[in-house]
Amino acid sequence: MEGLADAVAEAYTLYNCAGSVVLFVTTEKERNVFDQNHLEHQLMSRHQVRTVRATFDEVVEHGKRNAAGRFLYGKDEVAVCYFRATYMPEHFKTEKHWETRLEMERSRAVCCPSIAYQLVGAKKIQQKIAEPGVLERFVENSGECQRLRNVFAGQWALDLGPAGNEAAEMAIANPDGFVMKPQREGGGNNLYGDEVRQCLLELKDSPKRGAYVLMERIEPPRLRNILVDFKTPAERVISEEIISELGIYGVYVCDDKKTFVNEHSHHLLRSKKVGTNEGGVMVGASRLDTPYLLYSSGE
Prior knowledge:
Layout: H1 2-15, E1 21-26, H2 33-47, E2 51-55, H3 56-62, E3 63-65, E4 71-73, E5 76-83, H4 95-106, E6 110-112, H5 115-120, H6 123-129, H7 142-149, E7 155-157, H8 162-173, E8 178-182, E9 191-192, H9 194-202, E10 212-216, E11 223-228, E12 237-254, E13 259-273, E14 287-289
Parallel strand pairs: 1-2, 1-5, 5-6
Antiparallel strand pairs: 3-4, 4-5, 7-10, 8-9, 8-10, 11-12, 12-13, 13-14
């Protein structure tokens, strides 16, 4: 968390306005409040940066961009807009919500993430980068390019047409080998197994099929470990066969001319029972875990 706090503080310093705040834009029924509070504490204790929390609805009601291009929330000038909302369609309840998000982006405030950076993380962009020749537009070194491609899972567009039809037929024949992903975040939206076959058959001639991306299903190594389960009080400590997913977090602060911060920040390891499709901790599908690294001499 320290690395994230340092990066947000760097953006705050670059904004260079004494008395301004970091605005945490949250959902109405925020379930991730504790890690957000930890970040708020780090910003104050390490950098003496004041934070303000507000739901997106409250920002729509009380936020505005003034004539000087500064974004204000109430009487506070906002140096950094830290978004923990605006990543799901239901967060945009009215046209005013869309207008407010655009006003924040057009203001002088640093947006974390910017609209462009948020779109780069979309499933469709990931699929396009996996296409031949696309990654090479952004990574000039051919060796580095190949190293990146070596860790890509297979991804295919499902647009109507020969290529999309071929990808769909491949998944219908072997639905357990693929995942269908819509352009959504927040968990609970992907299709697995027979859901893949059923959806593709239903959308055979529909342009709605193009709203999904087809991805090769990753099969991590299986391990046996101990899970602590608070949903079943009688059996809170359970020995299960599990699979894990390691997420590496980086921080990046830049403007259109210069990169100020670009480094590794922290990691998150989530483990879940074999056979569980979803991976979210908050929905109870997986558990927080700790990696145990083994170093081999000569490697």
